[in-house]
Records
---
Amino acid sequence: MRHVPTLLRRELSAYFLGPMAFLILLAFQAIALMNFWQLVDDLSRSGQSFSGLRDPLNAYISGSLPFWIGLLVAVPVLTMRLVAEERRSGTIEPLLTAPVTEAEVVVSKWLAGFVMYLVLLLPFALYLPFLYYQGNYRFDLGPVVALGIGLASIGLMLVAIGLFFSSLTRNQIISAVLTFATVFLLIFVTRAAYTFAQFRRASWAEAMEFVSIIDQVNTFGSGQLDLRFLVVHLSVAVPLLYLTAKVLEYRREV
Amino acid sequence: MIEVERLSKHYHSVKAVDRVGFSVGRGEIVGLLGPNGAGKTTTMRMLTTYLVPTSGRAVLSGHDVLDEPLEVRKKVGYLPENVPLYPEMRVREYLSYRAKLKDVPSSKRRRAIDGVLEKCKLADVESRVLGHLSKGYRQRVGLAEAMVHDPDVLVLDEPTAGLDPMQIREVRALIRELGNQHTILISTHIMSEVEAVCGRVIMIVKGKVALDDRLDQIQERGAIVLEARGPLAAIRQALEATPGVTRVGVTDHQGDVARFEVLTQGGADLREQLAGRVVQNGWSLRLLDLQKSSLEERFVRAVREASFAPDDLTETETEAA
């Protein structure tokens, strides 16, 4: 794993030397600004009781549709080129004939995607100190930490999903569509299924709530750092990384 | 330096490389020659561990490509066909990145990069973006990258493809110079390239080694060209019956005059015996010449022989079935 820092640096510089990362950063910055505006606006109307405002962080992130749509678009866009582009341009040939292992390549690309994911979420975190100090709104710090860890853990899973699909094809569009569909499933379909199951009082409602990312973020945002969720995320991410390395190894056989 | 034994690569039912075997000693510059699609690139990809052979063995610099791929990669510098590069990186940045990946110790890295920049005449473009470089410069960056870790073996896949004549001269001169320190395997389908830089040639046709010989020996071994007036079949038979003759080919035939190309065992000069045969039979001898065979002739012959080989017939039959 000693080549990981070198590989990681190249992956990150590749992100920032293209326009895509900046467009997405800009979009997330806009979403964060809007949500923060909304949050401050809601908080300043004292007297009115918004049920969501008992957990202000949930109104800020997990209750925000633009945030989820942004994430749904950002994850495929950030991960689609990771391997597919190397395959299309042929740079995978010098990469995999250098004395590096497939595992090193996969881990570096995964970490690069994950770092970009964290950078996307950074604006949301940056606004909170203003609220705390400037706005003198003393919210609990615990939920913020839990939410940060939870979102990071979700990112580890989502980026691994995107990386895996990127390794399957040389076409970035195919990779993006497959990732988009999977992330859509994890964010919106699970949520809809949970609502439906709850309405029907079906026994699988609890299972759906458990895998629904929106509900996971709600849990984290209300201050519960549920380790079971972290286990779920890692138990999706790690096998996918293993499979991605295997896909790269298999490519040498055919 | 390079030992290859019965190396094969099959893609489903297609035998891209079929039981290829050869060995290359230290300091040799060997040309891997073959028509497009003959299996040169596949062979090189197996040697550089990019592809895993279906069967057979390849050992580079003492390390087996299957058992110790990482060790092989450390000892081999590889210039892939078309030189894939990251378009957004700068020349020096790219070389530095590759040197790090190839475990060039940081104390030597700067000197190694300066060295290859100078050798490949890249110093004046070192801060240019790779995506903006001309084909010739890209090729040189590829070469510089291949040798930045001072490998024992250089594997260069069509190093002069797409270059203009001046650039080709420069790259060839560079390769000749590198031959002093490295063992080099070059693939190409250009004859003059092999003649210009290689000491030895291995021809690959339809995935098989069709010829493996030193260049000077190929050029030494000639063919006898003979033109005579008389019945074609009879003359041919008479020539074939001469002791020492291995093959007689008809290269031209107009009226009752025919021109033959006679190959002899070990390239022996049998001109007198052949002339004697023709004259004894009462045919008139119009021309007799000993021609040094050029690489191109050997190449064309090898390709033709391979396309009429019995093995090939069975293959097409099974494909049709």
---
Amino acid sequence: MSIVHITARELRSLFLSPLSWAVLAITQAFVAYAFLVKLELFLQLKPYLPGLPGAPGLTAIVVAPAFKAAGMVMLLAAPLVTMRLISEERRNGTLSLLMSAPISMADIVLGKFFGIMSFFGIVALVVLLTPLSLLAGGTLDYGLLASGFIGLLLLIASFAAAGLFMSTLTAHPPVAAVSTFGLLLLLWNVDWAGTGAAEGVRPLFSYLATTSHFNALLQGVVDSADLIYYVLFVVTFLVLATRRLDTMRLGH
Amino acid sequence: MGEHSLVEVANLHRRFGDVHAVHGLNFNLRRGEVLGFLGPNGAGKTTTMQIICGVLAPSEGAVRIGGIDLLDEPIAAKRQLGYLPEQPPLYRELTVDEYLCYCAKLHGLRKQAAANAMEEAKARCGLQSNGARLIGNLSKGYQQRVGIAQAILHRPAVVVLDEPTVGLDPIQIREIRDLMRELGNDHGVILSTHILPEVQAVCDRVQILHEGRLVLDEDLAELSKSQRSRSIRVKFRRPPSRTSLTKLAGVKRVEALDADTLRLHHADDEALAERIVAASVAGDWGLYELVSESRSLEEIFVELTFGEGQHGSANNPRATS
């Protein structure tokens, strides 16, 4: 039960902070820009598309890039929102309130995670509204739209979990933000290493990268391996965060 | 120690790297008792309180709250705890009502119980008219009150308050002291403070910590007994012979401090001063100063925490450790 209350408090505090509103606005502005650019492209290509066998449709040309753009903004914005999750509570001394309350460390971590995910869910829903506006003048491939949206949600969830863990490591929110950003940027591009590497290593780096799984989902390929990757990613960082809160009581 | 112990602390140690902040503490808190923690900065008061509240884990030793081991069953043990840390744990962006409601729910209170608890805690801490205000806009004293309200909200069996009267004005301090005494009737209260009169005003028992060790653990009633005057310092223009002083009824020993100053040790005899004055007038000793000497809590504190005191070293921490 206490998880719900921590989630609710977190969400309330997020919306009382101007930063969250700025993140919402900037994500929306950037996604709108990407959307319009791709819509322009689609309108240019439109006369030729019927003649091409297996030509991409409206959803593939416009919606997938819009979601990809949202993923990129979140790469930058997520660390700024997640940085204060635990570190600010430590700094303000409110962590004592949670630690002396009759709740487990896992409750705290899960409450925080669901709180930040509620906010990121709202961000994703607002992003989803942009492609849905196409319904006014056309039809969409709902399967592709759904798989892309799931991909975006999973990507953001992995960012949130990583950010939450980084926030447990320090009492300085900016340090948590920079560390999270560094980690996420590395995982975004870690498949670079695979391109020149030996044949056996390439799949490993490709598997580690958040982008490879995200791209597959954006293309409409829902592979359980991709879903499991994100689930493992989230669970790993949440477990690490819980362990970290436990050890925080042990030493300095 | 029996069923009346709300808090049992056994052989508690806490190290931060090389620093041994808490060094083998043992004590109990009984129901209906207000326990005062005294000690200079860095004595380990806050660390001990954090350990009792589960915010820090001890390096060694055990803490039991209401008979439940804090390390084995932290959630059940913490249910009986209310804690006000040194820095009140407040969310500045929430209103007082929102904050207290959140705290009540964290402690598992249901809607109606939470509403009742909030009303009661606000009334006890004088916050009735501030429910809708943002905590960040409250003055330091009011923020402290919100912190105290949060600690007593769920009617815990044990209330731990780390320097509760810091930042309050004298009237608020009186109110909070009354509140602490009231809490002491049916709860157990542990409070730390720098303010010595506060301990005398509020506490049933006082513990002085020094360098992580307990150097004094005594009921305040006992302490005030031992504080009562046991000696009188007198100055005479024409000091009489020692024997004429020892002949006065009640004088146990005469100690010469300098040429005309003497200290008369006696056994708790309030009428002695009167007799000295009478004898001085009769014998023309020229009495011009008479001070009834008593040990204040402050003297005891200074003596225990700064090593060598003038009253011998039986209680000296450096001598016993």
---
Amino acid sequence: MNKTAAGQQFIMKRKSREKSKKNYWVAGDSPQKRVGIHCCLIVACIFVLYPVSRIITVSLRPLSTLLTTDLRIIPPNATMENYIKLFTDHSFLLWLWNSLIIAVGTILLSLLLSTTAAYAFARWKLPGYRLALIFLLTTQMLPAGMLLLPIYIVVVRLNLYNTYLGMIFAYACTAIPFNIWLLRGYFLSIPRELEEAALVDGATIIQSFTRVLLPLSTPALAIAGLFSFMTCWNEFMMARVMLQRPAVRTWTLALERMQGQFSTQWGLLAAASFIVAVPVALVFLAASKYMVSGLTLGGMKE
Amino acid sequence: MEHIQYGLEELGKILIVGVIAVSIIEFVAYILCKKVFRTRFTVPYMLLAPAIVGVIAFIVYPFLFNVSLAFSNMSMRRFLNYNVGWQHGVQNFIDVFTVPILQRVSFFTLFIRTLIWTVINVFFHVVGGMFLAILLNRPMRLQNVYRTILILPWAIPQVIVALTWRCEFHYQFGFMNIFLQRLGFSPIPWLEDPFWAMVAVIIVNVWLGIPFMMTIIFGGLQSIPQDYYDVAQIDGAGGIQQFFHITIPLLKPVLIPAVMLGIIWTFNNFNVIFLINQGGPMEGTHILITSMYHAIFGLYRYGFGAMYSMVLFVMLMLITMMYFKVMGGFKKEVYE
């Protein structure tokens, strides 16, 4: 009797403690400290948000008052002039389209090459596989600028200068090592027995790979695809070297050129930035949790 | 409209080329494995073959090609009829350290500037990220809202961030100077004066880099059990003691690789400096990597640039190894 009462009391206590953890105003810090923390964070948020909000401000300014010392976030007599001009006077859609083709091609090619390779590394103990994996890791240490000149010359020699294909090859192949690490780590975490069962049931190795393993590793595939997409969608340095023709110009290059004619096109630049940044930032924010875990995912399993 | 058609046509061509290339590679791999080497690993080798070809074509071969270029006198005038030889390599190597890399800055100026740039940036990234992560790491209201907002600089494409900030450093119409003037200071020539231009690029890069560190450190903090702090509290340890004796040691496995990544990224940061000021004014904000880019693609000194990039690569390796030696972190679990 006594015992159960004590037990109940303990459970009650524990429950109330759990409750108090959820009730932010009871647990932890003193009120003054809490106010201080919120103040610090709000200041930090203002430091982040103000420069970002300026993109919107500048993009909404009418052409007649592009250059003002006005600091209001929504400018007086705001218009959509810049946005309209972007689509009518400039080939903004073409730039996005070029970036999109290159990004999609890169994702497809790099995933195709790296899933198969990662599968080979995950399921067979090939002679020298450790060495190969370490080699792949070292390639990640090469400064990006270092391979720029030789890749440029390779691309020129292959007659792929100024083409989507050259860009896609270059981006996809440089993305392979990271993707292999990421995907191999994930493949190792999937029990082998599942595939063995499929093999016993008469599936071929290719079938067990495509029908069993790949569907189970969609999260890892999504992360790898997202990483590839983010890097080549936002890439600037290599594109600047390899794409000179206006017809294949990507948005990063186009925005940089707008910046060249700085004083007149400030509003246009801001409008273009806003349109490009919003979807990318949304995707990133939605995926950031997985992106960060993805950075460590490949390294979890040996 | 015709652009879309052109794009789709190109995409179709790429697919066809890809399928043909992969089939050829697979066929060759099959023949090699089955007939020539007679290995029992035919299937995995065939799975690996396309990736191996890709890595060789776009990483290994360019790397070796870069080595050979470093020992050549390739330049704008000698793009096709260049010579490879030891004497050119030695000449290029000596040139890197004696001749100005661009018009006026020498290697050592750039080296010291890059070191300062890297140290200041990584320091502020870690301190700022740590500060925000610790503030966020507690039961509190609006935690997710703060995190989402604070991660924004990382989420926005770097090119856009750099170009936007460039506008905001404009002498007359950028908000930095407008604020300064309203507060009663005199405006700063952000992009016209070499010193202030350096300050400007550092401000932008610090702004850009803090969210990454914050996210990584936040993840690390969440894995530290609250019990340690409770026990420390009972033993009478203050907040600062708890920070240095619990937080820092337990964050080490997260911090060491993150700082290493930060060093490599900052050392190699091209976008911010190039897009904000093209390394100007008077080459005052060039760091090693941007000057390499400019030497190669602006001044067309290909052979010299290749040797220069090799020197940078070796330096980066040495810095990374030194870092690991000092931190005692060259452990297996960091990588595997």
---
Amino acid sequence: MKSTKLKHKYTDAELADSFVFRTKISSKDRQSMDVDLAAARKKVQAKTSVKDQYYAELLRLRFLMEDEIRTSAFNENNSFTSFLRKYIKLSYKAYKDFALDIGLNVTELSQILNNHRAPSDNTIIRLELHSSNFIPAKIWFRLLEKERLNKLDNDMLIREREAKYVKRKLKL
Amino acid sequence: MFIIVRETGEKAQVQIERVTINELKSFRKNKFWFDWKTEVSNEVYKLITADSNVQGLISLIPVEGEQRIQINLLCVAKENRGSQGKYRNVAGVLIAYTCRLALKNYGIRGCVSLVPKTTLKEHYIKRYGMLDAGKQVFLEGASLIRIINRYAL
């Protein structure tokens, strides 16, 4: 369908607000266009501030966390502790300084990071507050819940242990 | 993410999902202008409202080795176009979602680009803060972050 039909119906501003059209380009034109784009991008990259780089990394982390929550499969590399380590490393060289800033005992933080101890609700709220609500508590919480569910799903020992307490199971 | 009901200014929550190959056949030209079956080798996403209606489509081409995603096609559903359209910001949210993908995959060096029709170039620059690269326009760095903040957070 020709885009000229649309021009009779909509202004250029309205068209830009509703479409990106396919454009036929020769491979020669494509090459020179891409050279121009690369040059323009280089200028932008040179001007990118440290503040923008930091914010972009934080945004990226948040998006990775949000997308991990949405997938059903559990990925060890995208665990709560894995994300927590990445979050801390964005702003701190030493974990103990982060522990200080959220009023947590260094030992407790170490136990959390090494999966020897689950973070308390208080700790999760402090993570939210530390990020100025940029990464809300519910994101941290849902990551933890996903890990917990994965552990529960795969724990056969607990099922064997708890079976003796269950009587008159449903007959289906 | 949300789009705006034009009449009332209310927000309508939306989801963006990848379109399957079979679904491509279902997007008719009378609503979505283009023949979307031609985009089978690209990544096509749909923007849907809570009632599962598709309000817009976007076709993306990741350009490997350049940390860039090219917007090949974008179309807002017929009922959302123009000054009387039902929903506003559909295109903005689709472009912002693409920026989100670029940032997630490539970090601060991620780029979103498109080749505009000559008559529309200035409008993309004005409306979405796109940067001028001659025959292409693009979003990267601060401009990419701005559009995510505006439409995708």
